[in-house]
Amino acid sequence: MSLSHPIYVTKSFFPPLKEYNHYLERIWKNEWLTNRGELTLELEKKLKEKLAVDTILITNNGTIPLQIALKILGNYGEIITTPFSYIATTSAIIWENCTPVFVDIDPDYLTIDELKIEAAITDKTTAILATHVFGNPCHVERIEEIAKKHNLHVIYDAAHCFGVNYKGQSIFNYGTVSTCSFHATKIFHTGEGGAIFCKDQKLYEKIFYSHNFGHNGPEDFHGLGINAKISELQSAMGLTVLNHFDSIFENRKRVVDFYTKNLKFERISKIKIRENTEWNYSYYPVIFESEEMLLTVLKTLNDNKIYPRRYFYPSLNKVNYVHGANMPISESVASRVLCLPLYKDLTDEEVSVIVNLINPLTC
Ligand SMILES: *Cc1c(COP(=O)(O)O)cnc(C)c1O
C-alpha cells in the first residue's frame, strides 16, 4: 500500500477551533493580552496539578529558560554538557558567555555518561547542563552526588519531558533548575512556549523577576532581566491542548507500541528507557547498524513521501561555531539515528506502511 499524502516526523496537535474560541472569548472580555493574565495563571495552576509539581513558571519558549538559568547559575564558567541534544542546549551556553565542555553519552540511554563527568570538572566549572534525551531521564542520582561533591549547579534541559515521571514523581523536580518546551512540535504545546521549574524559593524569586525585565513594580528593579513572558493567546492554546492531553498521550503510546511490536530489531536498535521511568512516548528514535543503512532507509522512505528526521544530527561538538573535543559515541549515534513519524493522528495503517518499508532493508 502507498500513501496519498506525505507523512512528516511530527504534526502539531490542533484542538477543535470551537474550544480555542471559548478561551479567546474570555481574553476579549478581559481585554488583557499578556503580563500574567487570568488564562496564564489558570494554565499554571492546571499544569501544577497535572504534573504534580510545587512551582512552575510558564515562559515564552523553552530556550530562554535555559539562558536565564545559565545567566544566574553559570557565572561565565565552564558548563559540563551533552553533545547529544538539540542545538539550543549548546547555543544557550555560548550565548550566555559560558563555555561548553562536552562529556560523551551512554550508548544505550543516550543521556550524558555520568561516569565520565568528574574527569571533565575543572576549577572553572560552574554547572552541569544535561538533557533528558527524548524524555529519557539522565542518571539523576549520580549527577546530584557529583554536583554536591564539587559544589556545582545542575540544570536539566527537560524540553522533551512533559508528563515524564521518575521514581514516582515528575522529572521536573530534579536538578537545581529544570526547563521544558511547549513548542508546537512538542507533546504538549502552546504554539511557542515553555516553562521553568525550581524548588529553591530564593532562586525561584530571582528567576521570576528575571523573566519580566527584572521589574519590582513599575518603577523599580530587582536586577537584570529579560522578557520571557507568555501571552494570553498562547496560554489559551495551552488550556485547550491540555484538555486533550490524555488522548494525545494514549495515541502516541499506541503508535510507539505498534513500532516496537512490528519493527525487526536485528540490525537496528531502540533507545533504552531508564529503570523506574514512566515515559511519555515523545519520540521514536531508531539506531541503525551503520550510517549507510540509515541513508538507504531514509531514501526509501522519502521516495514514498515519508519524512522522518535525523534527530539529533550532527553531534553538537561538531557544529561549526562550537569548539568541542571529539565525542566518539555521540558522533557515532548521531550519524545512525533517525526519529520515525510519531503523532496522535498517525494511523496504524500508516505506521504499518512505514514498518513494511523499513523491515526488508534492515534484515
Ligand atoms: C525544543 C527543544 C528546545 C528548545 O525549545 P523551544 O521552545 O523551541 O525554544 C531545547 N532543548 C531541546 C532538547 C529541545 O528539544
TrEMBL record:
Pfam families: DegT_DnrJ_EryC1. The keyword Ubl conjugation does not apply. GO terms for molecular function: pyridoxal phosphate binding; transaminase activity. The modification N6-(pyridoxal phosphate)lysine is found at residue 186. It comes from the Bacteria. InterPro entries: DegT/StrS_aminotransferase (IPR000653), PyrdxlP-dep_Trfase (IPR015424), PyrdxlP-dep_Trfase_major (IPR015421). The keyword Transferase applies. Keywords: Aminotransferase, Pyridoxal phosphate, Transferase. GO terms for biological process: polysaccharide biosynthetic process. The active site is at 186 (proton acceptor). PANTHER family: PROTEIN RV3402C (PTHR30244:SF9), TRANSAMINASE (PTHR30244). Belongs to the DegT/DnrJ/EryC1 family. This is DegT/DnrJ/EryC1/StrS family aminotransferase. The lineage of its organism: Bacteria, Pseudomonadati, Bacteroidota, Flavobacteriia, Flavobacteriales.
